[in-house]
Amino acid sequence: MIQAFQGRRWPLVLVWVLIVAVVVAAPAVLPVFRLNLLGRFLSLAIVALGIDLIWGFTGLLSLGQGIFFALGGYGAAMYLQLNSSASHPNGIPEFFSLYGVDRLPFFWEPFHNPLFTVIAIWLVPALLAALLGNMVFRNRIKGVYFSILTQAALLVFFNFFNGQQKLINGTNGLKTDVTKLFGQMVGSPEMQRWFFWITAVIVILAWLFVRWLVRGRFGDVLIAIRDDEPRLRFTGYNPTLFKTIVFAIAGGLAGIGGALFTVQSGIVSPQYMAVPFSIEMVIWVAVGGRGTLVGAILGAVSIMYAKSLVSEAMPQSWLFIQGGLFILVVTALPEGVIGWFRTDGPRNLLSRLGLGRRISTYPQLEIDGQEEVQP
User: What pLDDT shows up at residue 29?
Assistant: First the structure.
């Protein structure tokens, strides 16, 4: 620990101390509403970890993570709906009767099983991400074209889910706060407190898992893909396989985050696949610091909490603040907040703004040296 504080890792240690302190103290200090918000933002931090893995370490900017986020949310909501529908006609969720459906659709049936649901909320998004990723990566599509394709896929899924009124209640979404789990309302303060603790633990486990991935040879390959993919291919590695795997992992993390967000927000709808929301996910990582992992967590929680506070006071001003944050990161803090602390920080910021001390050029140094040796 002493060596960590003596080196450049002390900001990371300090951030983790603050994160753990906030998590431990939050249930005793915050009211239920604020605690619920913090739990939601921690679930979004899981999604941000996946984005940092594929963007910060692998160089793949995905603008479609909302697909996998929503799929995880729908998986959790479908189980909760079925778990609370025993007293309804035909034992199916109540919204089906609004559209004349009297028989449960086939793809709902497996979600009667809680074990299947726990596996499906991360496995289904991961498999879909692997399928989409493999189709893209084997054609060597990367850069801005990859970003455009992921956003196009997001629009396709958004429109598809919006139109499925008879199957998943379409634009209205699936509510979870009025459903029951273990005999209690999911939206009750007691259950929300438990979901907060579960989310906090999973955030730490997700961070440890992603950190383990990037610290070994697998992480070295990801960085090589980001920095010089043709050279990596020349050495005998298959970047397509690695990119597919890492994209699937990011999809699975987004699914877990979506499920936890859904049970704490009380509803899942196609709006989780809205384009602005997926772009906002990228901003969290950019502000926190790409390739830092803890920066993704810090960026997601701090920005979303700031959004909540600003929206309560000045509802129309958050978009301007968010745009200003993005401009600041692009122009003055490209490495993000954590990266800024890891480097020279204030000195680099002042120099980028044109306020830093000018450094003499080599010819000027030579002239100064000659003047000193002259008698």
Answer: 83
Q: What is the mean pLDDT of the chain?
A: 86
The angle that helices 239-265 and 114-137 make with each other, rounded to 10 degrees, is 140
Work out the angle at residue 30's Cα, subtended by the Cα atoms of residues 28 and 36, and round it to the nearest 5 degrees: 110
Burial (CB count within 10 angstroms: exposed 0-12, middle 13-18, buried 19+), residue 158: buried
Render pLDDT for 282-323 as a digit per residue (tens, 0 to 9). 999 999 888 889 889 989 999 999 888 888 888 778 888 888
Backbone angles phi, psi at 274, to 5 degrees: -65, 145
Say how far apart CA 353 and CA 108 lie, in whole Å. Answer: 56
Query: Would residue 173 be called left, alpha or beta, if left means φ above 0 and alpha means ψ between -120 and 50 degrees?
Result: left
The β-bridge relationship of strands 174-175 and 180-181 is unpaired
Residue type, 373: V
Cα separation of 64 and 220, whole Å?
A: 25
Best CA proximity match to 340, nearest among 291, 277, 276, 267: 291
Q: What is the pTM of this model?
A: 0.87
